[in-house]
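We give this protein:

***
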Amino acid sequence: MGTILKFPDQNEPEHMTAKAQEVALDRLLVDRFKSGDNSAFDQLVTRYWDRIYAMTNQLLRNQQDAEEVTQDAFIRAHRGLVNFRGDSAFSTWLYQIATNLARNRYWYWWRRKRDKSVSFDAPLGDENNSTLADLIPAEQETPEDATVTQEFVGRVAECMEELNEKHREILILRNVQNLAYEEIAEILGISVGTVKSRIARARESLREKLGEEFQP
């Protein structure tokens, strides 16, 4: 894992500035909605629909279920936004609603077989370029010219589906949705320390399920 550079406060990384701007705009839209401007909520839907759908689709592995959960999440957000106190970011609150709804649909995911081809090096989500390789980093460097066979790709996908609910969920939030530890902690209602340890256990569980073929 590479070294993470720490910039001085007066020259923060670009993604930190973008996040602060996003939170500020969300707060403005929430305030407008509470003041009676219904179009403000439409803007929130536009801003977050694709991200919420991408997350629920990764969790449920079914487009119809993901669409229904996404719709339900925004319906519930619309109903509850008047009482939203802003103790957390709007995005965190919305992710929490969607995650809880998706949990109630997990049994669909467990029972259905997936015909979709999974690429080990293809992006897992629409929001970033994380791949299966990012989820299960090897203990040693893989030769640049190494190729991953379709058989192994299928094996990785199968093992991802075999992870328990908490492990699969937290890997998706961290590696696919690229959320910070603190935001995941708020969404799941657990401590940051628990988030970190659960991610470590989830990755180790995935390695174990892959077996000897993945051992360095």
Summary: Residues 39-60 form the longest helix (22 residues).
